[in-house]
Design brief:
The chain is built from eight helices and no strands. The protein has about 180 residues and is mainly alpha-helical. The mean pLDDT is about 90.
Amino acid sequence: MTWIDLLVAFTLGIAFWGGYSAGLVREVIGVVALAAGWAFAGLLAGTLASAFPPTWDLSGAIAHLVAFWTLFLVAFAAVRVAGMAAERLANLPLLKTLSGMGGGLVGAAKAAGLLWLLLFVALFFPIDSNLRRMLAASASVRAIESLNRPAIAMIERALPKPARPFARLVLRRHRL
């Protein structure tokens, strides 16, 4: 176990503790509120933007942005308020422990995703050879880096066909 593995374990432990403190219900409500807000705003922003009075003098893009953000906040707040009732139920003795454990797992998963994103972005930049060697020696970093292959495949599939050879050129060196 390297010092990097200890940092990863410490990070995941802190995230687990934060998720445990929040509980599964609150963690899930937060994720659902984000997704619901995004979906609701995405579906209705165009309709609301077209209903703005002409006296507001907003360009089409700005009107759409204002409508999207307003609808997102309304839906996000509505889901969070509705979730408060579920949180009260989750505070019953046995459910509180289960919710805490589930929340810890969700918190740790979010932290692992953030660590992956940090490593994924960092690998696009020059890294000191000693640090690169230490990262490669870390079992937890290798586990996190294993998520790069599916991410790179998704990126390549999402790009237009003419851009894929250039992306492969850049991404093939994207590893420890």
